[in-house]
Amino acid sequence: MAGYKKYNNDGPSAEDKALDLFADMMIERIETISKDWSKPWITEGSLGWPKNLSGREYNGMNALMLLLHCERNGYKIPRFCTFDCVQRLNKPTEKQAKEGVELPRVSVNRGEKSFPVMLTTFTCIHKESKEKIKYDDYKMLSDEEKKMYNVYPKMQVFRVFNVQQTNLQEARPELWNKLTNRDTIKLDEGDKMSFEPMDVMIRDNRWICPIKPMHQDKAYFSIRKNEIVVPEKAQFKDGESYYGTLWHEMTHSTGIEGQLDRIKPAAFGSNEYAREELVAELGSALVAQRYGMSKALKEESCAYLKSWLEQLKESPQFIKTTLLDVKKASSLVTQNIDKIAQELDRKNRVQQDNGQRSETRQSTPQEKMFYSSVAYLQSTDDTSRLDEFRNKGDYEGLLRLAKEYYDGNGINEQYTFTSPLQNKGDDLLVEDKDFAVVYNNSVSGSYEVMLKYSEQEIRDHINRYGIRLASDDIKGVAKDMVAEQFLAMTKQRTPVFEMPCGDILYTGYNRETDTLDVGTATNAGLAVRHSFLYDHDSSLECNLQSVYTELNRMEQYKKEEMEYSGGMHR
Asked: Segment Disordered: which positions (predicted)?
């Protein structure tokens, strides 16, 4: 299939060669599907998500091509490593070096060829000083500070080998056995029509646009209405067909203005329309693969097969722009699904823990715990000792070492949460009654050490220091405290303002808006006239007094005759 691209006299770059290969593989795949359009894009969801040896996931673009590469060559374990990574496996640990332990040498098998993966790196240069900074540091700058930098993206190509192209199984059997265990979220084995994170997303309207299952025969995304309509689940032959159709339309919905800005006005049947269908097809196939399902070509997309082949053969650059869009769209879909899946997992674990504790401590209610970040260790830090404990599976040792990073300071209120898992890829490795350690293999292998606090300790902290720099979770506790105080006050005396003009105004606390609402009493409740943001750095009494002061400054409540000064009645 090669020979359809003309190169310049300097010869093809590494990126050009990679794109040629990717285009060849996609052409081969589409031609296979052309003969049997019911065939899945990736065979039967039989492979887990591609990762490197340390467990870091490849992005959507590389993941798709690595999955096709595995299928093409019969690789059963989607784990990959660079040549340098293979060499690092032969470097002994400090303990092994001291004890003189010699391990069998890990190597790439003779005659094996590597496969390209593409990574975009960014060079950030200050416009005036010409100083370079890391892209991670650039992302932490304010919008104004970012304006002072020029950012230059560059696509780099790295070559990787599948672990089956090495002697890892013989040289490191323990590591090999670990790699054979897959860690994907799957359909409920007891109910092939159930995938709870997606069901919750639809039920609670948590996608970027409404999803409306309706008893009819069409599935589509309406740009004009910004909504997805699909047949009801029961109308599909199985769960994979239902969710695969949903992900196709969800991928479309990511492209509108204000999201990924991918969809441009295009006539039905045009090249742009055909490309958008390919993005939706590949995006939904990747999402399905991630959750252990297969995704066959959508019947309506068959009309575009010829167009896709023609554009791929004409210019491999077509696959680059398409795969980049697939990467962004599938990431947006999976991030939302993973967030809900993590919430459900935490909820289930809490329920299990509460159930276990209730057997031994039935008379003691389980108090909510909070996790406060006290140390964050990433690629710029020396985490080798932590890595060693984690690789050995010695999590108790890892926890003991992690505690040494705590500097003795108190609650870090800005980074205190009800769950230790705050980012995609977070994994709670170990915890005891006081500390927890979270590992994230998708952010340069970072470790976060977290100190645990009871809700009462959080409440005491709020009373002492307020919530000026607090996280939303701590602010939620502060709101609960005000609501409780206000309810207790109303049981003894109702906060009522009698204004100089004679108006009687009643007050209520609105937890949702975090405001003291003031208005008149009606049969239906409080008819709100004014709302004042609650100041959590002051007491309830002080807040009420501040509200009364503000009301007295309003012309509508002043009295021309200075006979009565007004006041707050209890």
From this structure: 346-365
Residue listed under structure tokens 């509460």: 354
Q: Are 531 and 511 in contact (CB under 8 A)?
A: no
Q: Which amino acid is at 312?
A: L
Does 225 reside within a domain?
yes
In terms of domains, do 549 and 473 share one?
no
The contacts found for 496-500 with CB under 8 angstroms, 24 or more apart, are 496/568, 496/569, 496/570, 497/547, 497/548, 497/551, 497/566, 497/568, 497/569, 498/566, 498/567, 498/568, 498/569, 499/551, 499/552, 499/557, 499/566, 500/552, 500/557, 500/558, 500/559, 500/564, 500/565, 500/566
**Same structural domain, 528 and 442:** no
Dihedral sign, Cα of residue 547, residue 548, residue 551, residue 556: positive
339/460 same-domain check: no
- Flag whether pLDDT at 542 surpasses 50: yes
Contact 47, 70 (CB under 8 A): yes
Asked whether residue 412 carries a pLDDT value surpassing 90, the answer given is no
Residue 424 sits in the same domain as residue 409 = yes
User: CA–CA distance from 75 to each of 50, 114, 196, 198 (Å)?
Assistant: 11, 13, 30, 30
Structural domain range at position 272: 185-364
Contact 116, 157 (CB under 8 A): yes
226 falls within a domain: yes
In a domain, 546, yes or no: yes
Residue 556 has pLDDT above 70, yes or no: yes
Stretch among 4-18, 185-199, 231-245, 450-464 having the lowest mean pLDDT:
4-18
Residue in the block written with tokens 């060829």: 113
C-alpha 497/C-alpha 551 separation (Å) is 9
**Count of domains in the chain?**
3
Same domain, 544 and 510: yes
